[in-house]
Amino acid sequence: MAMQQFDNQISVTQINPAEHYSPAPLKKTSSLNHENVASDAKIVLATINAKYIHASLGLRYLYANLKELQSCCEIKEFVIQTRAIDIVEQILEAKPDIVGFGVYIWNIIETTNVVSLLKVVAPEIKIVLGGPEVSYEAEQQDIVASADFVLTGAADISFYQLCKDIINKTEPEQKILKSTPVELKDLELPYQYYSDEDLKNRLLYVEASRGCPFKCEFCLSSLDTASNPFELELFLDQMDILYQRGARNFKFIDRTFNLNIATTMQIMQFFLDRMTDDLFLHFEVVPDHLPRKLKELLTLFPDGSLQFEVGIQTFNPEVQTNISRKQNNPKSKENLIWLKDNTSAHIHADLIFGLPGETFETFRESFNELYQCRPHEIQLGILKRLKGSPIIRHTETFDLRFNPLPPFNILSTDRVDFATMQLINRFARYWDMIGNSGRFKHSLAHILSDNPFDEFMALTNWLFEKTGQTHQINLKRLYELVSQAVEALFPEKHALIISIIELDYAASKLKSHFGTLHLYAGEQTKSSGQNKLAQRQQRHKL
């Protein structure tokens, strides 16, 4: 990833890495050669995914570009819920000499625990870290203190070079190594290393381009200088191989998929020509760049085949200027409405709360404007401090205060106090359960009217006061709570909502009958009897 040249006035803590890393020459006395590498060393590539359905594209790129070392390498993927000690056990089963970890904001805590344990149990193993979470401000991180090497930036090639040096006993003296920029034409593509199990059960991440020309300061892609495409014919050949093997779920990680319309059209036509009932494509699109010819093509895709992730973030021009975001707001709204009315694409639109200059009131306006565009989902994100992102240049000016622990979310600004930030966090969580889940697709539109933000905020406050929780609410109980909240907050709507919410409840396919729900606040839920501890004690007496 290209480095951003910052102004001297910008307060950014950067690491001081060595010059671009190049491999040391092989020692003349070394017995290493391409034929005996596999018997001389063992490499494990590992990462901790947020969910099982996520397959690591980054690890597969590293594996694809290991050349003669590939035969002695193994990929091991884990999920967040796995205990660190169990991950260490599974890694050690491979008897590795080198372990490379992909480190991201969602797995930094868990990976730190694994690396710490691994260094205690098997200190002789060389641990190499890479990924966005350790590519910046690395020297201040606990995980780096435990590791042997850190490769910053795109490590597709530099990981191979470092492994050769470690195996050959010519490893560099520096711990933090800056990867040489990668020419995409020099990369071996990784798609053949998706297994049949991956194709059957997991999301397949693919990329037709790398980088982003936009400079939105909350995003690490703002450090890129441009969006660089892979050779299109080669990329489509790889997609065809995946398709012929049975792949039907493709998630493009391109930051700006519709930047080059000619390329976008060819990729879309490629998949349209192979359309089946189970083919599903996921793209991140620029909201104000949908020319007529692309629109015409999009109308040809059947229901259930497309999902568009549309980054709006904010409609406030002042905030957009603060974060260097260029967006034609009227055109973005027009295109969102057009997509909803004229295509079968599932539209997932993003807003971010806590941006420099944003207030409760301006965020309310952005939410209401986006709601009127009628996307299927509105993802309400809370600003996070991604290491290396230019957003931190605003820290003093806007008194940005971030959580020191992952996920490094914003806690307050000069415009938004901590209590308000917590309020929006609850709003976002309830919106995800009620608005984005699709569980209330019939009734929610009737609960909210001309002022959806304030009405849903009232619902948020009522639900939290009633339950004191934003997680682990039983679905049947959630239907009851929403009905009771409407009775308390909007009594004139309650009779209508009861009749409509029955449609939502039926769609949920819960086993209990709708007539058994407590839809009125005055109804008392029957006691569940003994609490769990008493039940446990009672079993020992039987």
Automatic annotation (TrEMBL):
Sequence ranges assigned to domain B12-binding in this UniProt record: 41-173
Task: State the UniProt keywords alphabetically.
Answer: Iron, Iron-sulfur, Metal-binding, S-adenosyl-L-methionine
What Gene3D superfamilies does the record tag this protein with?
Cobalamin-binding domain (3.40.50.280), tm_1862 like domain (3.80.30.20)
Gene Ontology CC: cytosol
Domain Radical SAM core: from-to ranges: 198-428
- Cofactor(s) needed for function: [4Fe-4S] cluster
SUPFAM superfamilies attached to this UniProt entry: Cobalamin (vitamin B12)-binding domain (SSF52242), Radical SAM enzymes (SSF102114)
Q: Does the keyword Kinase apply?
A: no
- Which InterPro entries did the record assign? BchE-like (IPR051198), Cobalamin-bd (IPR006158), Cobalamin-bd_sf (IPR036724), DUF4080 (IPR025288), Elp3/MiaA/NifB-like_rSAM (IPR006638), rSAM (IPR007197), rSAM_horseshoe (IPR023404), rSAM_sf (IPR058240)
Which GO molecular function annotations are given, in alphabetical order? catalytic activity; cobalamin binding; iron-sulfur cluster binding; metal ion binding
**Lineage top rank: taxon:** Bacteria
Q: What is this protein called?
A: Radical SAM domain/B12 binding domain protein
